[in-house]
Each structure stands twice: as structure tokens, then as C-alpha cells.
Amino acid sequence: MEGLMGFVRSPAATPIVRRSLFYASKSKKNIWLRAKLNAENDPLLQAATSAASLRFQEMYRPGKPLLFICYLTPKPLFVDPYAGCLVHPDVQMDLKECSHQYCLATKFIDDKLLSTVNHIDGLKQVVLLTDGMDTRPYRLNWPTSTVIFDISSERIFKKSAEKLQGVGAKVPRNCLFLHVPLESSDIQHSLYAKGFNGNQPSIWAIQGLPVMTLANFKEFLLVASSLAMSGCLFLGELPAWLAETEIGIKVRFRLQNRLFFSFAFSQYARLYPVVWPLAQPSTEKWMNKLFMSNGFRVDFVGYDEVAKSLGKEESPGEYKNILFVAEQLQFSDDQMETWRRELQRVEEEGDEEGFEEL
């Protein structure tokens, strides 16, 4: 615990102050919304509960007997002993043999998080961007001196925290768990205020975070880019509509332009308008560009690949999320500030030595 007692952020660059794009409405309107929302009409609560339900069902999902021996049943992808307290008592169980893509992604993220932090010496920082009902801080075996930051909706987090406390959920010994409200006007400043240190290694994971707009996700990507050290990972799931929205806008723009120029040419040549074929932009190409513009090199992971590596079968049907792992290629703001101060110190010492020689 002594390592956590010394968890104080070193002097860093002045954080970028930006208003949240997701929660830009006036405070009075927000108060009215909170008063009106309940379990039946709160989309964030419903989404978080549905995800917890999938984790709960995964623990009881049957599978094909191992080695054709009936009494050797396969293990679930993961064990979430706290998911049960977060779901409705009358939850409908879907006990098919195939694992849902969300559960495959959950297992993949779990393994990546633990394998990464277990190779970090000293202080370990984990930033989870979640739906407010993520049980990873409690159910994963985090190593000593791990500090976990959960960025999620405050109202959802409070509801789940009460239920988890009621069943005795606790983070591992010598670890620290801190919540950063998604409603914060400046997420980066809030992380700094909680003690995040950009001169220490970190790993970032996103799953379930209510990303409402492309601009909203770009804001979070910028925060991760500013705070994560070179070599740190950012992984998780993103809704596919992020790419589809951007690509759809570009396709419509190109179509309108080509229609216009085609029609203008046809009028000039007294021919019928011609529409040239359009090359559909690549989703991966667009996401590569988005991540690289923020200093990350990204790789995409197929859910079928994860299922195959785990000896599981993927549930049939369309799943509109993208699983990814990105590596930070540039220095964090804190690292850049440290280098700037060190360079300034060396220059000042050089000036003093030159003055003494004169």
C-alpha cells in the first residue's frame, strides 16, 4: 500500500480545457432529465443492464462436452460473480452453446489488460471507459499497486456501486479504484485531479461507454493521446456506426460533386448525364487515419479469431461493433513537459559554465 500512498502526479503540462461535447446542455435541463429518467426509459441504464445480463448468462452457458466425456463440461469464458446483482431477477436466460460477441470481446479485453499490467514494474494505471456497470475492478486479479480509473455515467455508476457494495464486492488488496464522472466538463483535468500521472505507464480500455457522436469519440481519443505514454495500449470495442457515419458523409459529398460535374459536362456536350462509379471507402482505412492522427497505430481483431483461439463458437447474426488494439507512438503531454524542462536545465547549466570561463 506504500506504493499507492506515494501516488502523486508529477508537475505536468497545463491540461487542455474543453467543454464536454456529450453533456453540453444546461444544468437545469440536466436536472429535469435526471428527474424524469427511470429504469424503464433510461437508455444508458438499459444498455448497461443488458451487458451485465450477457455476462451473467455466459457463466451458465452450456457447451459441447470436452473430449466427448459428458461429465467434463467446458468452462465459461469468464466468471463474473457480481453480474447477478446488476440484472433483473426475472432475466431471460439464453443458454445457447455459442458465445455472444460481447462476451468474446470481454474475455479478450480481460486477458489483454491483465497480461499488460503484470509486465509493468511499479505503479500501474488502468483507465476503463465503461457503461457504469463494469465489474472488472472487482472480479479481475489485479497486481499490487494498480490504480483503476473508471470513466462512466455518474448516475449509472452510483446505482451499480450501491448494489455491488450490498454483495460485498471489493477491489484487490493494495489496489485503488477511482471514479471519474462522464459528465465532467473536462475529463483530462478530472483524471489529473484524481492523480493520473502521464509519466507513468497506463493502459486504456473502452467497452460500453455511451459514445453518442463521432466528435464525442474524437474527444476521448484526444484525451488518451494526451495522457498515455509512448508504448501504452488503448483497446476495446467501438460502434461500427462511427466509421459508417463519416464514410456515409464522404460518399454523399463525392456523389453530389460527381453528379454536378457529370451533368455540367453532359450539358456542354449535349449528352445525357453520366454518373461515374464510386469506390467505397474502407472502414479500416478510415479508422487507421483517425487513430494515426492522434498518435496511435491500430490493429483490428476479428471476433471469429477470438472465438477460435478460445475454442468457442461465435453467435450467429450481425454484431455492429469493432474490436481493436492501438499502440501509442508519441509522447504524452507529461513526457513532453519533462523533456522540455530537462532541455531547459541543460541549456541553463551550459550558459553558467560559459559565463564562468569568461
TrEMBL record:
Q: Which Pfam families match?
A: LCM
Q: Which InterPro entries match?
A: Ppm1/Ppm2/Tcmp, SAM-dependent_MTases_sf
Please provide, alphabetically and separated by semicolons, the GO molecular function terms listed in this UniProt record.
methyltransferase activity
Biological processes per GO annotation: methylation
Q: Does the keyword Transferase apply?
A: yes
- What's the protein here called? S-adenosyl-L-methionine-dependent methyltransferase
Q: Which UniProt keywords apply?
A: Methyltransferase, Transferase
Highest taxon above the source species? Eukaryota
TM segment ranges: none
Question: Does the keyword section mention Phosphoprotein?
Answer: no
What the entry lists under PANTHER family is as follows: S-ADENOSYL-L-METHIONINE-DEPENDENT METHYLTRANSFERASE YKTD-RELATED, S-ADENOSYL-L-METHIONINE-DEPENDENT METHYLTRANSFERASES SUPERFAMILY PROTEIN
